[in-house]
Amino acid sequence: MVKFKNLKALKNERLKILYIIVILISFLLNLNNFGSDRNIYLDNDKLQLSNKKFYEIQWLENPTFDSPIECWKCNIEGDASDVNATSSQGEANFEVLGDQNSFTFIADPPIASDWNVVLNPEYPSFPDIYEINTLGACVSHYWAEGSDQSVAINWDKNLTMPIDMSDYVVTSAKISVVANGSVETYSDDPPNYSEGIDTANDNCEFFSTGDYARFYVKISDLEKNKEYEIAYYQTYNLGQDSDPEIAYMNDTQLISVPEESLIIFLTSVLNSDNNNFTITIGMRIWCEDNFPQDSDRWNLLIIKSANLTFSYEKKIDKLTSVSWNQIGKKINDLSKYKIEIIDAHINFKCKIDSVWPSSLSPNSEIRILINNMKILETIKFADSNISTFFQDAKPGGFDVKLLIPEEENVSVSIQLYLADDFILDEIITISIDDVVFEISYIEFIPEEDLSTQVFWIVFSTLFAIIGILSALSLRSYVYIPRKKKRENYLILRTQKFKDIRDIRAIILIHRESGLPIFSRSYSLIMKGKKTLFSGFIQAISIIGDEISSEDQKKTKKIKSTEKIDYDKIIELDLKQFFCLVLDVDELRTVLILKSRSSKRLKQIMFNFTLALYLKISKKLENFDNDLTDYPSIVLQFLDKYFELYHKENFVTKHHENDIPNLKKKFKLSKLQIQILNVVSSILSEKRTFRLMDILEKLSEKNEDLIIDAIETLIEYKLILPYDG
């Protein structure tokens, strides 16, 4: 009974001591705390008492583009002749360089010095007389049966465009050519004799097509690999000697090919040489044999004028972009203390000086990129009403909080992106101004504590009291909690490695189709067995659908109003392994684990899935079963969130002989030195090693301590991921 009372008294004394400690700690934590905003936060795995300060800053320099604008840089990708970036009067401009012009060639009449005489390769005999004079391009020919039955003459002129036509499209074209002619006709003496044409009335012994002259105009490339007749006229009654007699052809327009054909022919020859092409004017004479006698005299055939004109407009190439960019500071440079981003919004004013050709380019848009990552919302010209005066790009701005990195310089890019091929006949200017990029954050400033001095005074006094009154409580209230704290710290530090080691496979599935857009196995059971792995993915997809369906029945909540967080992750115990499933709209993420997951791994899985979904949501909404682009995108996010390089090969740049110097320089522990010796032993037999090799070699030691030592050596860069 006495013993029991002593124990009860001891217990009461301990409770009194604990009560006193709580009161003193509360007093110290609240000392000098009146009138200020304070918080307790985790810094370097230690709880810190801090003041909180709220800031809202404009992240960009010179948001109004006042001169000079060295902090803003412009960048063009694609066809640099299609776009330009300028700045003036406190605004930045995107220029889409449309253009229209026309080309005119006039030979009225042709001038001899401009033309070169060439053979017609199909009829390689010249007429008796051919020349260009003040009347035009002239031909005379006499034929008495027996020679020169068909003759022809061509005149060529090479034309040069004022611009490179590779970036232009011919939109309209016209050819105008005038010709005339005269022949001699005979109606008797002797009979069966005519000039220029034979008709049934001639009563000739032989008659087929009759005599004719063909006037023509051609265009071609300089090498004559492509040649097109674009205008012609062929006589059919010139030289008729009776009913009535026709000895003259008055000024006559040559027949032109349809405008659509003329455009096609011009485009074809200019594709061979973007600056030069050849125009040809010519005449061909056909004199038919009509025995016993038919002499033909073509007195004068003339091409009086040849005029060619066509219009062309600028071709704008898709995938061309022009942007204004600025690189800002790092978030971590804002303060030497811990900070937390609360909000980040960007907005700007924009206008356009002309109506955008939405029917020709419906998909072109203005994009915003943060550190080269495009935000999901864009400003499509076809859907938005951009005015001719400045207005906000979006009321309230664009939320970009999730895209803000803490350890990189935060860069901003406002980009005009041309998503279609189209033609444009004028310069269109889109202007931006007043770029507001506001980031709100909280700074946690540790106490420069006057209360610290008071704390130690009180603590010293309290410690003396505790030493006298509660020597028996030392183990329960001091030693064990400290040991527990060290153990918790060790667990916190080593959990990352254990989570990574625990991952056996990662699978990403498009929920609607059930197709895996990405999968990677880290288990020898699955490697090399694609059929088995594919079947496993399909099974996981079916199980995930059933679980999601059951979950919806239980919660009876509408999907659009359901809060998504890591508590929505479903964990399945499949005996041989564990399976984590998380659905975010069309994206299903599946982790295959060796053992039950930690809370930390679930949080990382949630953050990874949400960030990836924001990146690929558009592709998933318009899913076309094309899986080509997904792996490269997913790998970037895997490396960022899961640090899976811990599963890959490592190397060291140091030799075994360097270990004594490294021990002194970094104050290495015995276990860290032992690990470096193990690494040297492994590398004496092969080029690289894995972290699991170290754990296997030191299996008799505490695993947490080994992992902690390995993490430290990675931080010191004494062992490095292998990038070969």
Structure description:
The chain has 724 residues and is α+β, with helices and mostly antiparallel strands. Helices cover 27% and strands 35% of the residues. Strand 8 and strand 9 form a beta hairpin. The chain contains 11 helices and 34 strands. The radius of gyration is 44 Å and the shape is elongated. Helix 1 runs antiparallel to helix 3 (450-469). The protein has 5 domains: 2-54 and 446-491, no CATH class; 56-98 and 317-444, Jelly Rolls; 109-316, Galactose-binding domain-like (Jelly Rolls, Sandwich); 497-647, Beta-Lactamase, CATH 3.30.450.30; 650-721, no CATH class.
Structural class: alpha+beta
Helical run tally: 11
The number of E-state strands comes to 34
In helices, the fraction of residues equals 25-40%
Task: State the low-pLDDT regions, or none.
Answer: 1-5, 31-36, 188-196, 198-203, 554-564
**Mean pLDDT over the full residue set:** 81
Shape descriptor: elongated
**Biggest sheet features:** 8 strands, antiparallel
Relevant CATH superfamily of the largest domain: Galactose-binding domain-like
CATH architecture group name of the largest domain: Sandwich
CATH topology descriptor of the largest domain: Jelly Rolls
Q: Which range does the strand content fall in?
A: 35-45%
The radius of gyration computed from the alpha-carbon positions, rounded to a whole number of angstroms, is 44 Å
Q: What is the C-level CATH assignment of the largest domain?
A: Mainly Beta
N-to-C CA distance: 76 Å
Domain count: 5
